[in-house]
Amino acid sequence: MMMKKPKIAVIGAGWAGLSAAAHLVEHADVALYEAGRVAGGRARGVSGDAFSFLDNGQHLLIGAYQGVFRLLDKAGADWRGHFFRQPLRWYLHDGLRFEAAWSLPAPLNLLTGLLRGENASLGEKTALVRQLKRLQSHHKRHLPDQSVQSWLDAQGVSRKWLAEFWQPMVWGALNTPLEEASLNVLCAVLADGVWAQCELSDYFVPKVDLTRAFAAPVVAYLQRQGAAWLPNQRVKRVLLDNRRGVRVDGERFDGAVVATAPYHVAGVLPPSLGEEVRLAIRDLTYYPITTVYLKYGRAFRLPALMTGFAEGTAQWLVDRRRLTGANEIAAVVSLSHRIRATPLQWAQRVHGDVLRVCPDVGEPVAWQTITEKRATIASRVGRVVPAQDGLNRYAIWLAGDWLHPRYPATLEAAVQSGEMAAQAVLQRFAAGGEAA
To answer: How many CB atoms lie within 10 A of CB 382?
Structure first.
């Protein structure tokens, strides 16, 4: 006799919730709740008529984001047309420049590219290559975690390489200050995205907003599969049901995946459950990311798709002429709490960075500053993912980028977390399990 599909509520339609729902929908009756009017969470399109498109933050995917791309394939999305793909290239206006050697396997492609790089002596480049090789050896030994800064200090890393390589890489990958950043998490990112296969380090930069590129195709797939899409419905609390299962806004479900931002999780969970999760959430540290969009009246061309600065307000300028043909730049400022500025002052400061590269660009004809105050969660030393056993016993699971056991809070971590939650749900009900 065919078993009845479980009825599952997924609460939160960020990338983790979308992933959980998409991996459940063929095997469960899914209802996807979202407090806002659109899906996507901290990576979605926003309105802005003056620009070709706007997101609530400039995002970069890499080839190692296999979970993201698998999900888009599952949804039938034409994602290859929505992203500009480019092999790994590092271009600092005021520092190191290199391109990975595409013809060589990883990690030789990176090491060879560094040795052929510009704006460093052979001795300096050799020193950086040795640092990377020592880090790879360190990773293979599975040693206790420590901060990236403490490891760099032990290696005697020069100021040049701190400013022109390690700091911008760690800020970009982990969005965490060097003195707090987990060396083990950094190694996991490099091992899966740089040291594994050369194509896994390729850049994938969106040419359309992330709602169109990701959230909308996944929501459309869910609806085709019969899922209930429930925007503008903020779930106040998941309650335990006396007949086993849970209740969400009065409706009974066999289980629920809570995929809200961590600072909303405690309020959604039943008051009697999840104390370990609540304690872990209180220990999280959030950091802001500011994105400044600038539009110019005349054509320009940055020297690279992503032009960076060792010393500047922006860490990276993204040349949107290469993406859409529009005379626009998206500037990324990680850890933007370091600078106190109004939205206009942010735009003025980033325009100053642009003038360093393109002195004849003129004044911007439009600007937009977007600061996500809790854009990311610090990947700190010794970070522990809380156990969910107590919740799982009552058919409640969690999903979110902050729960990934190896990765920083990234889009890929969110998607993989959603997939893992879905697998746990399906395993439970495939075994005939019921809520306690």
So the answer is: 10
pLDDT in tens, 352-401: 999 999 999 999 999 999 999 999 999 999 998 999 999 999 999 999 99
Q: Is 115 helix (H, G, I), strand (E, B) or coil?
A: helix
Give the SS3 label for residue 406: coil
Please tell me the distance from the alpha carbon of residue 261 to that of residue 372, in angstroms, as a whole number: 13
Query: Model confidence over 106-137: pLDDT tens digits?
Result: 889 999 999 999 999 999 999 999 999 999 99
Q: Provide the β-strand partners of residue 316.
A: 308, 332
**Closest by Cα among 421, 3, 45 to 207:** 45
**Statement: the pTM of the whole predicted model exceeds 0.85:** yes
6, 29 contact by CB (below 8 A): yes
> What is the full DSSP assignment across 278-301?
HHHHHT--EEEEEEEEEEESS---
Cα 240 off chain centre by: 32
User: In this structure, which amino acid lies at residue 273?
Assistant: L
Q: Among all chains, which residue has been given the structure tokens 């002429």?
A: 321
Domains of the chain, start order: 7-47+208-284+380-432 (3.50.50.60), 88-201 (no CATH), 286-377 (3.90.660.10)
**Three-class HEC string of 302-357:** CCCCEEECCCCCCCEEEECHHHHCCCEEEEEEECHHHCCCCHHHHHHHHHHHHHHH
Residue 159: how many CA atoms within 13 Å on its side-chain side?
Answer: 1
